[in-house]
Amino acid sequence: MNAIIAAQPRDFLHGRAAAQARPRVSIIVPTYREAENVAPTVAAIERALGDIAWEIIFVDDDSPDGTVAAVRSLGERDGRVRVIRRVGRRGLAGAVIEGMMASAADIVAVIDADLQHDEALLPKMLGAIETGNADLVIATRYAQSGDAQGGFSTLRRNASTLATRVSNLLLKTNVSDPMSGFFMIRRDAIDGIAPNLATGGFKLLLDILASAPESLKIVEMPYQFRPRQLGTSKLDALVIADFLGLLLSKLSGNTISPRFFLFALVGATGLVVHLATLRSVLTTTHIPFNAAQFIAALVAMTSNFFLNNALTFRDRRLTGSAVFKGLLTFYLVCSIGTLANVGVAELIYLRDASWWRAGIAGAVMAAVFNYAVSSMLTWRK
Ligand code: GDD
Ligand code: MN
């Protein structure tokens, strides 16, 4: 018995523990529906890193296609590969942040799971950080010899170039690919700012650049962005709306949250819905104006509710029977908001006699009120 216990630690050292020396770099791979890409991605990274000690942390948002199982079965054979399965949450940036916080190495890299990023660059990126030449290395699709052509459609390339220009302008950064999903950074540069980073959408690097101190040493390395072979891209309208929210929020010096901008955006669509409904009710029925106005308001509020539930508050999305209760509280909040709108506008109109200044003040008042109260009442945390 004693002999067995005494023998154990030594076996450990000579067996797995010796093989699993502390990694020099942790590779974070965010995934959503990438089951078929998991094995090729690990193989590519392993080949690229050679004898550099590494670990790979997949962070999956509970994909329904078996991505987690795919990583686990690889992990059974190779302890350097593991997966964090997040449940009830979606968001690329948040997934990456969680992976970084769970890493064993002092240096962390982020790379997509679809082989669009060139993993062969990893050793060079690591070298730049380990020698102290960089705190952050951005693999960029645009710098001199970098080539984004392969992996992008024309539309996507133009949109991407525009987004890059706008970001650099607003955030006063001047890196050539601030939206890159492929970069490496010293973890201690992330630790402090992690709680302040936005968890939704695709703009983690942008957010890091905006929050990092000026002393952060940044190096860019160009590479060829490859076309996706398997699976589909998850960059959609929601991701773009989210990105606009972040830019506007940064523009306001962080005083206004990205969520509020989404709420205001939805509010603006509500106005369009309201007017369109009013017009069609008035032209197709003989209902009096007041009643038509009431119907239009109800339709607009309902549409706002569902858009906000899907977009603005998607991380607190109401489902099942909670939807009905949520809708009722939202009607209540908006009705009081409308009273506030009319009241404020009238007050200002009496003092100022400018109808448009009064109108804008009323609308802003209602937006702020509806946002503040519905985020406490309808979509409370
Ligand atoms: N955990 C998690 N949660 N992972 C996600 C999510 C999510 O909600 N959405 C996307 N991913 C994963 C994908 O599975 C993939 O590994 C990686 O994040 C990038 O997603 P893609 O859907 O392949 O994005 P893309 O190729 O269209 O976008 C590329 O360009 C963007 C900027 O233009 C990527 O390089 C992005 O990283 C980059 O920000
Ligand atoms: Mn991709």
UniProtKB/TrEMBL annotation:
Subcellular location(s) per record: Membrane
A single GO molecular function term of this UniProt record: dolichyl-phosphate beta-D-mannosyltransferase activity
GO CC annotation: membrane
Chain segments annotated as transmembrane: 260-281, 287-307, 328-349, 355-373
Membrane topology: Multi-pass membrane protein
Keyword Transmembrane helix: yes
Domain GtrA/DPMS transmembrane per the UniProt entry, residue ranges: 263-379
EC id: 2.4.1.83
Enzyme class: transferase
Keyword Electron transport annotated: no
Ranges in a coiled coil: none
Superkingdom of this protein's organism: Bacteria
Residue stretches making up the Glycosyltransferase 2-like domain: 26-191
GO biological process, one term: polysaccharide biosynthetic process
Main location: membrane
Keywords annotated in UniProt: Glycosyltransferase, Membrane, Transferase, Transmembrane, Transmembrane helix
CDD domains hit by this protein: DPM1_like
Database matches in Pfam families: Glycos_transf_2, GtrA_DPMS_TM
Family: Belongs to the glycosyltransferase 2 family.
Protein name (database record): Dolichyl-phosphate beta-D-mannosyltransferase
The species this protein was found in: Hyphomicrobium denitrificans (strain ATCC 51888 / DSM 1869 / NCIMB 11706 / TK 0415)
